[in-house]
Design brief:
Length: about 260
């Protein structure tokens, strides 16, 4: 077992043998509060791992950090579920952004620091990334092979950063946006470019996922799940390749088909 899960006693029912008691791995869930320059900003519901990456990725994706120099330090108190972030830049606009928060469809986090329509004013993502259909299918297969916690609990979303040929970073969490933020945070803290990478996920493809990808410059998002109408509209306007229902060697391209080689 890992610190992402815990064993509990449950009553199990089987249509053949009836009821029985057994030990069952269950995914951990805990609140973690982010404090920026001494002020509490938000509480995230998450599994509780890679908290430095989660905090940095959240702040970068939401525009509070723009460059590595903006980040002073990150201090994590795992016992209290508290992350203290010191930023060098002026964050007096935080309270104004908080009053403009919108409730999102994401699990593990209920707010997003921007209106969905802000994405329409973002610059379209520029990237020369190209990949084959086989690349799409094989990277989803790789994601499944890395999904030990999901196989134990069926309680997390899996997300990976990849090149067309290999997975580079894998993260999982109860919230698909938390998993994405961890990856974005990893790249922010380690100066990894996102403009020639794809994001592979098990989560739904919704508008807030597209907004997050556009803000950090991710050109391709691949999921085993479906896309919403607004996500597809945003993908087209933001020049993001959006691929869903990657299962059993098949998939659907909702937008950006020019990045997928057809021959």
């Amino acid at each position: 077992m890992t610190d992402k899960t815990t064993e509990i006693d449950v009553v199990f029912f089987d249509g053949t043998s009836g009821f029985s008691r057994r030990s069952q791995p269950v995914i951990r869930e805990r609140p973690v509060s982010l404090h920026v320059n001494g002020n509490e900003l938000v509480t995230l519901l998450c599994t509780g791992h890679h908290l430095q990456e989660l905090a940095a990725g959240f702040l970068y994706a939401e525009g509070f950090l723009r460059r590595p120099e903006d980040l002073g330090k990150i201090e994590v108190d795992e016992e209290l579920g508290r992350v203290e972030i010191t930023c060098a830049n002026d964050l007096s606009h935080v309270n104004q952004l908080w009053t403009k928060r919108t409730v999102t469809s994401g699990c593990g986090k209920g707010t997003l620091f921007s209106f969905a329509l802000d994405a329409l004013r973002s610059k379209p993502v520029k990237s020369t990334l190209r990949m084959s259909a086989e690349n799409v299918v094989h990277r989803m297969e790789d994601l499944h092979r890395l999904s030990d916690t999901y196989r134990q609990t069926h309680g997390v979303h899996n997300t990976a950063l990849s090149t067309p040929k290999e997975i580079l970073v894998f993260r999982d969490d109860i919230g698909r946006h938390n998993a994405v933020d961890m990856i974005v945070g990893h790249c922010f803290l380690n100066a990894v470019s996102l403009q020639d990478k794809l994001l592979v996920t098990t989560g739904r493809l919704t508008s807030e996922m597209l907004i997050k990808a556009a803000k950090v410059g991710i050109p391709v998002i691949v999921s085993r799940n479906t896309a919403t109408t607004l996500a597809i509209e945003l993908a087209k306007s933001l020049n993001i390749t959006l691929i869903g229902h990657v299962r059993a060697g098949k998939f659907i391209i909702y937008a950006g088909e020019e990045r997928i080689e057809t021959s």
